[in-house]
# Entry
Amino acid sequence: MSAETHPDLTKNQALVFGSLSDAGGPLTAYAILDQLRGDGFRAPLQVYRALDKLVEYGMVHRLESLNAFVACAHTGCAAHGAAAFAICENCGDVSEFTPEKAMDLLRTWTEQQGFQLSRTTIELRGTCKGCASNN
Ligand SMILES: [Zn+2]
Ligand SMILES: [Zn+2]
# Structure
């Protein structure tokens, strides 16, 4: 997804989304800040503000276990409520997929509990296919 398909993005949001898209993998807010210093970014708060909105729009996901952010791999999947990530602990590769069957189970549980689910992010930690076959 390009910034042009989201006309409501501010300049800062577009810059942050651009650097995450170009990275092709997760970045911490500080790594984004380092990349954007030449574009007028001075403080982590500017990056966090932009990231908050991009996460809200569904264009960026937050990876809690890495304390990092990643551009959504699915074009036009804004506002998809569930995303799963397989994170390689060796090379840092991150693959996004939609955990449909797992979500069916989780939705059943939340409905039974009366829990109001707003967002689900599943993080799988391990070794990717490429790294596993090199060992
Ligand atoms: Zn996504
Ligand atoms: Zn790997």
Summary: The longest strand covers residues 82-88. Residues 61, 72-74, 77, 80, 83, 96 surround zinc ion (ligand 1) (CB under 6 Å). The beta strands are 60-63, 68-71, 82-88, 94-97, 120-126.
